[in-house]
């Protein structure tokens, strides 16, 4: 029935564009839409048999109906067959996805429920970007400085999906996002990128009395449905502004859909001044339904990790450069400069033909962050990283940067070539959470650290390492590399080049 209602709403919008010529038809279609909305328990065929639709027929309505006959027919045929659940089932049936476990099915049902609530409350949530643009000039933040506007919390709560790595959170959220109508005000963005954007906007409006309010107004003007991937708070600057930012976003009607490895109550656990962050957790739980994905299966590691460019051992540095040159082709690599946000620049030691080379120290031992990495992957699709070390207390900061680098790389679907001291799992052997440290020894984490001088007890890093290991595994899988080559070939408007074979004896895969 919702498909019928949605079709009639489309008819009504078309009529509004032609109101001067078809004003009578507009009134009749609105009456017809009212009848249909009030009869959700009956099918369209029942209404036709009872004559309720025909009572509202007129030449104007019949004209509009004939113009949209194809759309109407498709909607009637697909009553109740829209949303993420349908697409999920289609992809499984076509072999694009493996059959999900009960946890994924529970999650896709939650997303379907949210989808249907949004369809039902489309007008109350002001989702249609074209309708909202009619009065955008009156609702911009400058006008709100003159007239205080009441809070308009959305009648629909958002969804906060959390669980282990590789359980399909991002895939399911993206599937949900793709099914939302294109005319809705929606945005899908990685949490790192979102916070960089917020800080950039704050810098832009630093002369305003309350720049955070301005930023919240701008974001809510652009998107009412905000999908954030990998919600993970590790930066004290982010933690201090999140509560005020999201209070204002929610009060302006924003609906949050997010994925995370951490439950809401575990966000920013052990962080500096966490007591100032706790109100945000209350706000998040008030405006979003927290839904756990409890699967222990990592779907990223189901791929056949038979080939890749992950070399274990310092002696493979020369081989790494040879493989990189073979991907570059005849062009000669040279030092380059990448511009990132707020006037920052990143120096690339060697780069050519979309490929960049860095020693590990240049990317992860220097004061760089997500902004620099996003800037890097906007210009380069392939990264050769030489000399990834094992991580512990002695290089904790570099470990954080490496985790962020892999997150940004994965988000941008980039290709990685690297040499490392150990395989992906062994790289993080010395990174443990407090709970893991107590399992090894019931003594305090401080005492535990004295047993192994390089053991790093860090909750945020301890939880993030599983995601990084999983993503490193997928990035080096055959499926990922084949998909990368296909996308690169499409971008270059030429057939994708075959993968270069790598001797499995030289490659260590998780």
Automatic annotation (TrEMBL):
Q: What GO molecular function terms would the record report?
A: ATP binding
* Bilayer-spanning residue ranges: none
Stored InterPro entries? ATPase_AFG1-like, P-loop_NTPase
Kindly list any coiled-coil regions of this protein: none
Swiss-Prot/TrEMBL keywords: ATP-binding, Nucleotide-binding
Q: Which family does it belong to?
A: Belongs to the AFG1 ATPase family.
Give the protein's recorded name.
AFG1-like ATPase
Could you tell me which species this protein originates from?
A: Urochloa decumbens
């Amino acid at each position: 029935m919702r498909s019928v209602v949605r079709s009639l709403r489309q008819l009504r919008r078309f009529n509004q564009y032609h109101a001067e010529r078809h004003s009578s038809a507009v009134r009749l279609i609105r009456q017809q839409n009212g009848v249909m909305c009030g009869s959700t328990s009956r099918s369209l065929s029942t209404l036709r048999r009872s004559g309720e639709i025909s009572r509202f027929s007129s030449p104007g309505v019949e004209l509009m109906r004939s113009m949209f006959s194809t759309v109407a027919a498709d909607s009637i045929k697909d009553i109740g067959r829209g949303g993420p659940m349908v697409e999920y089932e289609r992809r499984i049936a076509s072999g694009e996805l493996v059959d999900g476990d009960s946890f994924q099915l529970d999650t896709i049902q939650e997303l379907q429920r949210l989808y249907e609530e949004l369809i039902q409350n489309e007008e109350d949530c002001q989702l249609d970007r074209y309708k909202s643009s009619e009065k955008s000039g009156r609702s911009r933040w400058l006008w709100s400085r003159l007239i205080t506007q009441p809070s308009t919390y959305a009648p629909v709560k958002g969804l906060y999906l959390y669980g282990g790595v590789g359980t399909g959170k991002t895939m399911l959220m993206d599937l949900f996002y793709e099914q939302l109508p294109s005319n809705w005000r929606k945005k899908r963005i990685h949490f790192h990128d979102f916070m960089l954007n917020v800080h950039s906007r704050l810098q832009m409006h630093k002369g305003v009395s309350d720049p955070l309010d301005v930023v919240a107004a701008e974001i809510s003007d652009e998107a009412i449905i905000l999908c954030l991937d990998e919600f993970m708070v590790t930066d004290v600057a982010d933690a201090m502004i999140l509560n005020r930012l999201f209070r204002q976003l929610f009060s302006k009607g924003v609906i949050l859909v997010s994925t995370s490895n951490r439950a809401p109550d575990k966000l920013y656990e052990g962080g500096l001044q966490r007591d100032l962050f706790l109100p945000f957790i209350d706000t998040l739980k008030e405006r979003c339904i927290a839904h756990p994905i409890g699967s222990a299966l990592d779907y990223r590691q189901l791929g056949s990790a038979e080939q890749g460019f992950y070399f274990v051992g310092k002696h493979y540095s020369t081989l790494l450069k040879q493989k990189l040159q073979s991907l570059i082709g005849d062009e000669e690599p040279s030092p380059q400069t990448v511009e990132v946000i707020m006037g920052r620049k990143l120096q690339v030691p060697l780069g050519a033909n979309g490929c960049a080379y860095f020693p590990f120290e240049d990317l992860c031992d220097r004061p760089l962050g997500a902004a620099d990495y996003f800037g890097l992957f906007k210009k380069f699709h392939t990264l050769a990283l030489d000399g990834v070390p094992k991580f512990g207390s002695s290089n904790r900061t570099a470990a954080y940067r490496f985790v962020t680098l892999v997150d940004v790389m994965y988000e941008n679907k980039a290709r990685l070539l690297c040499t490392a001291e150990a395989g992906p799992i062994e790289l993080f052997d010395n990174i443990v959470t407090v709970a893991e440290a107590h399992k090894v020894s019931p003594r305090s984490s401080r005492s535990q650290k004295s047993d192994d001088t390089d053991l790093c007890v860090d909750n945020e890093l301890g939880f993030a390492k599983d995601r990084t290991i999983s993503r490193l595994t997928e990035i080096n899988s055959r499926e990922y590399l084949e998909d990368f080559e296909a996308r690169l070939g499409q971008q270059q408007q030429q057939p994708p080049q075959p993968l270069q074979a790598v001797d499995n004896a030289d490659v260590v895969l998780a």
